[in-house]
User: Fold this.
Amino acid sequence: MKRVMVGIFAHPDDESFGPSGTLLTLVEQGIDLHLLLLTDGEAGANPNNAPDLGKVRLDEWNRASELIGATSTAALHFPDGELCHSMHIAVGAALHAETHRIIESYAEPIELDFITFDQNGLTGHMDHIAASYLATHQFYSLKNDTPPNVTMGELWYYCLSRQHAPEREWTDYYMPIGRDDEFITREINVQHLLQEKIAVMDVHATQVHDATTQKQLGEELLGRECFHVVN
Assistant:
């Protein structure tokens, strides 16, 4: 049975600065990866004062997705920083349409998994939290009404261990602390793909500050990616 992973993230660099090593590993294993992006990231850092930051960041995302080896991508163009409760119906409908497009692209039976940030949004970013909850809704909706050619697999929540999370005095942006070992149910070793992971991160030139912060973790931590997996 063909394995298919759908990744749902809020911003153009979320999968790259998050579980990109795991995504590279899944593709290496022959799993089809489909990436769904909720916003264009137009409210992010803009060190070069690009007049259309959203377009620049979408171009970066497309290049990063190619490096990862995604089978397909779809950007939904909802406003960055505004994934509030009132928008959930519209975003959910768009995600529903895209997930069914993906399913219908397969003639053979598939096993379908989802991947997203954990439900604290990894850093406490409200867009991340919204993406996580919307991905969760899509996953369990499909479990409750599964198409004939689909076997539902697992929902992977990418999270930070206490070792991965920065110290509070380092940045006030990481509002939640890292997760305890008991919460982490799966750890993927991506050391063998560390250079490829760094290359994916470096594509996001507009967000170079975040990439630099990630690299400060060091190779040992960059080579470990943590998840809370449910089914």
